[in-house]
């Protein structure tokens, strides 16, 4: 739906304009906004550095150690987690540095 920019321009030109839309049109417009936002966010994430974030279980597998070792490294500051909501993840670049030592 390319009408988004036209609607914005129209709203600036005629601020008191009243518009009538059907529920299905409004629903379609909302879905379009969500799809566009998702695409933009995915693009930003992939462009930033293509950094991968691994779960503690995956890190333990890569380092061939127990989850308790990952927990200890975390508590000592050797590994620094990144939180996505309540999920703890570790940067692959940090794990790679550990693997190189």
Helix fraction bin: 55-70%
Q: What profile does the largest beta sheet have?
A: 3 strands, antiparallel
Taken together, the total number of domains comes to 2
The multimeric state of the shown protein is: single chain
Shape: rod-shaped
Q: Determine Rg (CA atoms, Å).
A: 23 Å
Please report the distance between the alpha carbons of the first and last residues: 52 Å
Task: Give the number of DSSP strands.
Answer: 3
SSE order, one letter for each helix or strand = HHEHHEEH
**Low-confidence blocks of residues:** none
Strand coverage percent: 5-15%
The number of distinct helices, counting runs of at least 4 residues, comes to 5
User: Whole-number average pLDDT?
Assistant: 85
């Amino acid at each position: 739906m390319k009408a988004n920019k036209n609607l914005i321009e129209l709203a600036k030109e005629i601020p008191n304009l009243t518009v009538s839309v059907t529920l299905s049109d409004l629903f379609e417009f909302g879905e379009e906004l969500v799809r566009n936002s998702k695409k933009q966010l995915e693009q930003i994430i992939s462009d930033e550095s293509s950094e991968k974030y691994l779960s503690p279980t995956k890190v333990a597998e890569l380092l061939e150690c127990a989850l308790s070792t990952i927990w200890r490294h975390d508590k000592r500051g050797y590994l620094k987690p990144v939180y996505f909501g309540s999920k703890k993840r570790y940067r692959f670049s940090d794990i790679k540095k550990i693997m190189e030592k």
